[in-house]
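Worked example 3 (structure in, sequence out).
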């Protein structure tokens, strides 16, 4: 649990070395690939937006015709033209209404399809990425990708894009309408555009600053929350609640302040726009009114000009409102495209070799390995484990035992040399065969929400209830499961039964037993006490290891003593290699460890 501030989330480390243009190109590429399947519907939506805006812009022009042509005709006793214009106005209003409603519906359909596609892609891709990525990318960041980033895109796609397009079109059409109707009034509008542009530019710059500040603040709040709650045991164990709460509150306060400032900037922008809009209306009215007096302008045209001028600035406020959505969606797209551009560091083989019936012969041939660009953790490892042998890895903390296990399970690939299964480089083994041939059981014995049976069946999807029970019996967990409220159907998530660490370990043994791999890699739980209550786990473990190649990171003396062979690892090298009895007799590091172990057991 750290209390230092996390890095600003704007810069994702996978963007390092890329120019902004490259990042943008990557985002646009993602957007294009998302829109491709819905391209027809998207174009249709665009067309509908254009028609709706054209219908809207026709209104004031029809008013002008009504006043200037319809009214005089009516005075002359002919109601026809006015009725025609009124009918036309009603029709355009109807078309505008129907098409605007259609826009909302169509945009929602397109955006939901795009989001579903993206959500799926992000999940599948993140899941496919190698362990190396997951050990580096914090859970808070992963959560942000699936929640706030997708939300930011949803907000924009669900209405923002069409509103932006509609607003832009409305301004262009309104200005065009005004110029066509009366270019002098158009000129007045053009003058008013200048302060409008200046104000909009000011708003863009200011709101961008505030927006970034607010995004950084909210990301900190989320990361802090996730980090604290993930590490809640440490927080409570060390009584850090008050301190962590203070840090959190300071970050939440910064988020509030950033939002308050953003709202203030928005307020200034909106007020400014209303002011400019009203002054423009007054100017158009004044200039036009004088010309009406001179007889140079028809009253109807003046009314239409005033209506156009009034309408012109309203869309700017909308654009301003969605500018932030647009920004956050752009940032979200950059981060999502960055995530999707990550390649698994453990790629699938180009020409996979099938290993349908693996024997379980394992070899490390001149393996050199370190994490990422870091120092060498395994300088050069040569090791042969014949099929069926149980090997216990022992050594001090940080010696490299887990690293050997992770290379064997192909969570990582060596920098040099190769790890071979039945003589085939793991990099070439068909992933389907590798996953059935090799199973890694980790210390944490993770159980997914669902029934006990489903958790065991993870080892072999499609296993029958009888097979699941047989596996549970084999590792000695059947009686325990049978005694649970709903037996094998007992839910093991937070709403259901909480299993103890040892019980979870047994369930994970049953899972591995059912999978029946040729090679088992096992990180034994760190408890080193061989107390009687652990006997069950010990027996289960022994059954699990029988009849297959097994590499165990051993923490219990009994496990080590039952192994066929013990490897003492020190600084990434194997310093002792032999049967437990041989190593005890040799009187080196293992013999020392063995003596300490026995002492601790005696005093326990
Ligand atoms: N994901 C990682 N990224 C970078 N370095 C790592 C990573 N995991 C382990 N290391 C480093 O590799 C070295 C060997 O670690 P490893 O986890 O293999 O040791 P170990 O023998 O299994 O220790 P323990 O018994 O404490 O689990 C250590 O120096 C550790 O700091």
């Amino acid at each position: 649990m750290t209390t230092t501030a996390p890095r600003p989330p704007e810069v994702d480390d996978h963007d390092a070395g890329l120019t902004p243009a490259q990042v943008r190109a990557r985002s646009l590429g993602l957007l294009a690939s998302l829109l491709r399947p819905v391209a027809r519907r998207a174009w249709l939506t665009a067309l509908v937006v254009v028609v709706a805006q054209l219908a809207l812009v026709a209104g004031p022009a029809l008013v002008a015709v009504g006043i200037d042509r319809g009214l005089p005709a009516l005075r002359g006793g002919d109601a026809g033209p006015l009725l025609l214009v009124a009918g036309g106005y009603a029709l355009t209003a109807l078309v505008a209404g129907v098409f605007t409603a259609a826009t909302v519906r169509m945009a929602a359909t397109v955006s939901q399809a795009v989001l579903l596609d993206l959500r799926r892609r992000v999940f599948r891709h993140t899941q496919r990425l190698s362990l190396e990525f997951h050990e580096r990318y914090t859970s808070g960041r992963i959560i942000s990708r699936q929640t706030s980033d997708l939300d930011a895109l949803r907000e924009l796609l669900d209405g923002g894009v069409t509103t932006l397009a509609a607003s832009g079109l409305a301004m262009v059409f309104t200005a065009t309408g005004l110029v066509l109707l009366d270019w002098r009034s158009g000129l007045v509008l053009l003058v008013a555009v200048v302060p409008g542009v200046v104000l909009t530019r000011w708003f863009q710059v200011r709101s961008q600053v505030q927006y970034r500040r607010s995004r950084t603040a909210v990301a900190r709040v989320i990361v802090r929350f996730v980090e604290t709650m993930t590490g809640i045991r440490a927080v409570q164990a060390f009584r850090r609640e008050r301190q962590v709460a203070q840090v959190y509150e300071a970050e939440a306060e910064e988020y509030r302040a950033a939002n308050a400032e953003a709202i203030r900037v928005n307020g200034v922008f909106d007020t400014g726009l209303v002011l400019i809009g009203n002054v423009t209306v007054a100017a158009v009215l004044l200039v036009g009114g004088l010309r009406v007096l001179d007889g140079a302008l028809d009253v109807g045209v003046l009314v239409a000009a005033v209506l156009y001028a009034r309408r012109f600035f309203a869309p700017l406020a909308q654009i301003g409102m969605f500018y932030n959505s647009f920004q956050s969606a752009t940032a979200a797209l950059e981060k999502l495209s960055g995530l999707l551009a990550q390649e698994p560091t453990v790629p699938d083989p180009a020409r996979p070799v099938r290993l349908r019936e693996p024997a379980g012969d394992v070899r490390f041939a001149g393996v050199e390995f370190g994490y990422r660009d870091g120092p060498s953790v395994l300088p050069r490892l040569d090791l042969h484990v014949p099929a069926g042998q149980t090997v216990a890895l022992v050594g001090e903390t940080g010696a490299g035992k887990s690293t050997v296990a992770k290379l064997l399970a192909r969570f990582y690939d060596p920098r040099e040399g190769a790890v071979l299964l039945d003589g085939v480089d793991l990099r070439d083994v068909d992933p389907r065969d590798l996953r059935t041939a090799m199973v890694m059981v980790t210390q944490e014995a993770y159980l997914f929400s669902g029934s006990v049976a489903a958790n065991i069946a993870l080892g072999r999807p499609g296993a029958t209830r009888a097979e699941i029970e047989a596996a549970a019996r084999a590792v000695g967990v059947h009686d325990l499961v049978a005694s649970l409220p709903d037996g094998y159907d007992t839910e093991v998530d937070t709403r259901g039964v909480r299993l103890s660490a040892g019980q979870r370990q047994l369930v994970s043994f049953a899972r591995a037993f059912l999978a029946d791999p040729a090679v088992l890699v096992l990180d034994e739980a760190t408890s080193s006490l061989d107390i009687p209550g652990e006997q069950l786990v010990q027996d289960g473990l022994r059954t699990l290891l029988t009849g297959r190649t097994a590499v165990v990171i051993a923490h219990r003396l009994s496990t080590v003593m039952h192994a066929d062979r013990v490897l003492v690892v020190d600084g990434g090298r194997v310093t002792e290699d032999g049967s437990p009895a041989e190593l005890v007799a040799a009187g080196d590091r293992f013999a020392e460890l063995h003596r300490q172990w026995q002492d601790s057991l005696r005093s326990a």
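Notes: Residues 362-369+376-603 form a domain with the Rossmann fold fold (CATH 3.40.50.300). The two ends are 31 Å apart (CA to CA).
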